[in-house]
Amino acid sequence: MTAQPLPNSLRSLPDENGHFGQFGGRYVAETLMPLILDLEKEYRRAQDDPAFWAEFDDLMKDFVGRPSPLYHAPRMTEHFRGLAPAGKGPKIYFKREELNHTGAHKINNCIGQILLAMRMGKTKIIAETGAGQHGVATATVAARFGLPCTIFMGATDVERQKPNVFRMKLLGAEVVPVTSGAMTLKDAMNDALRHWVANVHDTFYIIGTAAGPHPYPELVRDFQSIIGKETREQIMEKEGRLPDMLVAAVGGGSNAIGLFHPFLDDPDVAMTGIEAAGHGIETGKHAASLAGGKPGILHGNKTYLLQDEDGQITEAHSISAGLDYPGLGPEHSWLYESGRVNYVPITDDQALEAFQLCCSLEGIIPALESAHALAALPQLTAAMDADKLLVVNVSGRGDKDIFTVAEALGVEL
Amino acid sequence: MSRFETAFAKGPALVCFITAGDGDTAANLDALVEAGADVIELGMPFTDPMADGPAIQEANLRSLAKGTRTADIFRMAREFRARHPETPLVLMGYANSMVARGTEWFGDECAKAGVDGVICVDIPPEEDAELGPALRAAGVSLIRLATPTTDAARLPAVLEGSSGFLYYVSVAGITGTQQAAQASIEEMVGKLKAASSIPVAVGFGVRTPEQAAAIAAVADGVVVGSALVDLVKQHGDDAPGPLRELTAALAQAVHAARRV
To answer: pLDDT digit string (tens) for A279-327?
Structure first.
C-alpha cells in the first residue's frame, strides 16, 4: 500500500470534483451528467439552508423515532471479558439503529434524499434494493411525501425476500423484478440506472448507500452522519469521554461511514469496518472488496471492486443480502488506503454465530449485516483493556433474516 | 489524412456496431465492410453494460459466456486491420475494461492493433484524466458522446479533447429501444456542427434504411447497433448473410445522401 499525504482534516473530502484521493468521481453516461451537476448544486443550497435541516431533524425525531439509543450491552461485555486475557475486554455499547422506523439505518438517508427530490421538483422516485431494506425505506418516504415509486430488485432477491416485496407493495411502490445478470443487487442497480437515464427529466434516484457518482457518496454520508453525531453526544453524556473503538459492517458502507465520519479527526478513536468474507476469501465466494478486490470503475464511482484481470466484475457472495455487492463506497476505499480505518473480513459462519449470541445474551435479534460487525468482537475485545469503550453499530434488526438463518441452521419453519 | 477523415470525406457514413466475441466476429466484420459499412464499432463485452438495452446486454453476456478476454478483442482488431487497411475501427465499451491493466497499456494496445478510436460510455469530460491523456499519447482518438441533455454550457467540455467524430446519442435512454423524433435530431445536429469541425454521427434506436436515410440527410454519419446485434443473436454463426443484407440496404440509404 502506498503512503499518501493526508489532508489537514480527514473530514474535508471529497474535493470539488467528488474525489476521495483517487477514489469517487463521476463516472456516468453523458446523459446523466447534467442531472448529477444539478443535484450537486441543489445539495449545496440545501446544506446552507437551515429550513432544510429543520425539516430533516423534525422528520428524524417524529417519523423515524430518533435519537436511537446508545445501549450498554452488559451481558455481551461480561461474555467477552470472560473469554479475554485478564484485564482485557472493553465495555461494549450498541448504537441501536435497528430501533428506527422500518428497522434499519436506511431511512436516515431516504428522508434526506426525498427532501432533495422535493426541492428539485422531481415527481417520481426510483431505487434499487437487494434484501429489500432500502426498498422498504424508499417506499416508506415516497408514501409519506405522496410520490410514485418504482423499486428495482433482482428476480432472485424478489423470490427470497417475499415479505419485503409485499411490504413495498403495501406502501404503494411498484416492484420491478430484474432478470439480467445474476438477478441480484448489482443487476438491480444496473437496471435502475438504465431506467434513470431514460427518465432523467422527472425522476429522482434514491441510491441506498454511500456509493455511486458524486455527490451521492457525500450526501448519503452526511445524512447518515446523524448516527455518529448522536453517538458522540450520548457517550459523552454516559462516560464523559469519547469511545476507543467503533465497529460497523461495510456493504456499500453507509452505516459505517455514518458512524465513523464525525470521529475521523479524533486520533484516539480507532475504527474497524467489517467486510463480508462469505465462505472465506480463499474460496473466492465472498463480498470483501478490499481484502479480495482492486480499484476499478463501476456504478458511477472509482473504488475497490471484485473483478478479474480484464476488469470484468465478479459475483459477490454473502449470507447477508445487504452485504452481497462486489464493491463498496469510495470513501471507504480511501480510508482503507490512508490507514485511518482498519477493515476485517468476517465469514458467513462467524456472522451466524454472533447472530445467535446477540439474540441469547442481549435479547436483540440483529440483522445479518450487523451480525458481521458483532462477529469481530471476540478478536477486537481480546486486545482491548477492560477500561476501554467500544461501540458497535447494530444497523438493522434481524426479523427479515430469520428465514435465511433458519435455513443455514437446518431448521424447518 | 486519418482513416476517419478519409471515411467521412466521402459524405454521410454508415457506422456499424457489433459486439466482439458474439458469433463469428471476423466473418461478421467482413460482411459489414463488404456490404458498405464505412466505420466499424467493435463492442468490448462487459459484465455490467449500464447504458445498453436488452439486445446488447445479451450480446455482452453471450460473448463473455464463450470466454472472450480483452486479449481476444485486440487479436480480432489486429486481424481486422490486416484484412481491411482503410476502414476506421473503434472500440466501444465501459471504463473498467479499459482501465483494468492501466490506461497506458490500453492506449498502446489500441495503437498496436490499429484501433483508430475509443468510445467509453462512462467516462464523461469531468473524468477525462482517467483515459483521455493515455489515448491521446498513443495517437488514438477519444470519441465523445453528446446527448439530448448536453446543453450549451457543457458542449465545449464535451468537444475539448474529442477527435475522430462526435457521437450524438439521439435518445435520453439506453441502446436499441426507441428512436428520436427527426426534428429533434436535426435541431441538435445543427447545434453540434455549428460548435465543432469534426463529423457528427447519430445513433441509438436506428434500425431501418428509412430512418438511416432521414438522418443521413442532416448528419455526417448514422450508427446502427442493436438491429445488427439482433441478427447475430437470431442467426448465430450464420449471421454474415443476414448482416450483409441489412448493411447493404442501410449503406445504400445512407450513401444516397452523398449525391444530393
So the answer is: 999 999 999 999 999 999 999 999 999 999 999 999 999 999 889 899 9
CB A165 within 8 A of CB A153: yes
- Using the 8-state DSSP alphabet, how is residue A86 labeled? T
First-residue to last-residue Cα distance in chain B: 24
- Domain of B109, in residue numbers: 12-259
pTM listed for this prediction: 0.96
Q: Which residues from B are below 8 Å from A32, CB to CB?
A: 149
Question: Is A298 touching B (CB cutoff 8 A)?
Answer: yes
Q: What would the DSSP string read from start to end of A215-268?
A: THHHHHHHHHTHHHHHHHHHHHHHHSS--SEEEEE-SS-HHHHHHHGGGTT-TT
% of chain B beyond a pLDDT of 70: 99
pLDDT higher than 80, residue A240? yes
Q: Is A159 a catalytic residue?
A: no
- Neighbour tally for A58: CB within 10 Å: 11
Mutate to test the interface with A, among B46, B91, B96, B178 (most CBs of A within 10 A): B96
Tens of pLDDT along A150-171? Answer: 999 999 889 878 889 999 999 9
Q: Is A215 on the interface with B (CB under 8 A)?
A: no
Mutant choice from A37, A203, A297, A303 vs B, greatest count of B C-beta within 10 A? A297
Give dist(CA B184, CA B173) in Å, integer.
15
Does A299 reach chain B within 8 Å, measured CB to CB?
A: yes
Q: Say how many domains are in chain B.
A: 1
Nearest to B173 among A190, A198, A299 (CB): A198
How many contacts does A have with B, using Cβ atoms within 8 A?
119
Interchain contact, A311 vs B123, CB within 8 Å: no
Q: Which of B94, B124, B145 sits opposite A26 (nearest CB)?
A: B124
CA distance A50 to A234: 24
Residue A302 distance to chain B (closest CA, Å): 9
CA distances (Å), B236 to each of A170, B64, B243, in order? 45, 15, 11
**A66-103+225-408 CATH choice from 3.40.50.2300, 3.40.50.2020, 3.40.50.1100, 1.10.1740.10:** 3.40.50.1100
**What is the spatial distance between Cα A149 and Cα A144, in angstroms, rounded to a whole number?**
11
Interface test with B, best of A152, A310, A313 (most B CBs within 10 A): A310
Name the residue facing A310 among B49, B70, B147 (closest C-beta): B70
CB contact under 8 A, A298 and B96: yes
Using CA atoms, how far residue A102 sits from A64, A114, A167, A367, A398, in Å, is: 8, 16, 10, 12, 12
What top-level class would CATH report for the domain A19-62+106-220?
alpha beta
SS (H, E, C) B241-257: HHHHHHHHHHHHHHHHH
Domain spans of chain A?
19-62+106-220, 66-103+225-408
